[in-house]
Amino acid sequence: MRLVEASERLGVPVLVGHHRRHNPVIQAAKKLIAEGALGRLVMVSVCCALMKPERYFQIPWHRERGVGGPFLINLIHEVDLLRHLCGEVDSVSAMKSNAVRGLDVEDTGGVLLRFDSGVIASIAISDSVAAPWSWDLTSGEVERFPTHEALSHYLCGTEGGLSLPALELWRHDGDISWTGKMARILCPHQSGDPYVAQLRHFGELIKGLATPLVSAREATRNLEIVMAMHEAATRGTRVKLS
User: Fold this and answer.
1) If residue 172 lies in a helix (H) or strand (E), which one and from where to where?
2) Is residue 170 a contact partner of residue 180, using CB atoms and an 8 Å limit?
3) What is the mean pLDDT of the chain?
4) Nearest partner of 187 among 172, 173, 167, 171, judged by Cα
5) pLDDT for res 97
6) Distances (CA, A) of 116 to 84, 87, 90, 103, 223
């Protein structure tokens, strides 16, 4: 917050690198939601399932309580993406387990978020499972991670659903009912490297031609929510955001 206040007082912008907002798939999803392709957004389900090798935990802080574990290392990206698509978070509930590795940090957890709009989102996360259902292993954003033809994010509305990163739009052919068949529409989108786009945005910011897509204040809100998730999982209670 001291950094945020200094940035705003001096008029010097601070950019935080939440690269997913620069991904053309996410930009297309944001546009579809805004245009009402899903009707009213009601529910979102996120899966972050992957296997971190044992050598990952040879780095001391990766297994240190209060800084390590998938809640504090990985969830920040899911939080920023959900806020980008769903709006502001009202409250969170969570639980966690370290049953697989037995370290001082969790290896598996579940989170529920309630948004001001009434949207409910769930996140299932584990770094101890052999599975491809995560953004890192399906989006193709990072070369060191193999890309799988799988899905990780499901957005559900009153008139349709959207699965990511394939950008599949599901809508009924006729009456909207669970007894009616739905059609799958592959939505077109531009191709592009989100990291390159992020650096281009950074250059525009330096030149004074843009404002931060994710400012220091915006990113601090993400951090507050992640810390609330960790607190909720540790205490076993619902935490309301201020």
Assistant:
1) strand 168-172
2) no
3) 96
4) 167
5) 97
6) 13, 7, 5, 35, 18
Tell me what percent of the chain is helix, strand and coil, each rounded to the nearest 5.
35, 25, 40
Q: In a 3-state reduction of DSSP, which class is residue 200?
A: helix
Label each residue of 39-103 as H, E or C: CCEEEEEEEEECECCHHHHHCHHHHCCCCCCHHHHCHHHHHHHHHHHHCCEEEEEEEEECCCCCC
CATH 3.30.565.10 for the 16-240 domain, yes or no: no
Contact 117, 41 (CB under 8 A): yes
Quick one: pLDDT band at residue 242, thresholds 50, 70, 90? confident
Q: Facing residues of 164 across strands?
A: 153
Residue 177, class by beta-carbon neighbours within 10 Å (0-12 exposed, 13-18 middle, 19+ buried)? exposed
Token pair belonging to 43: 């529910």
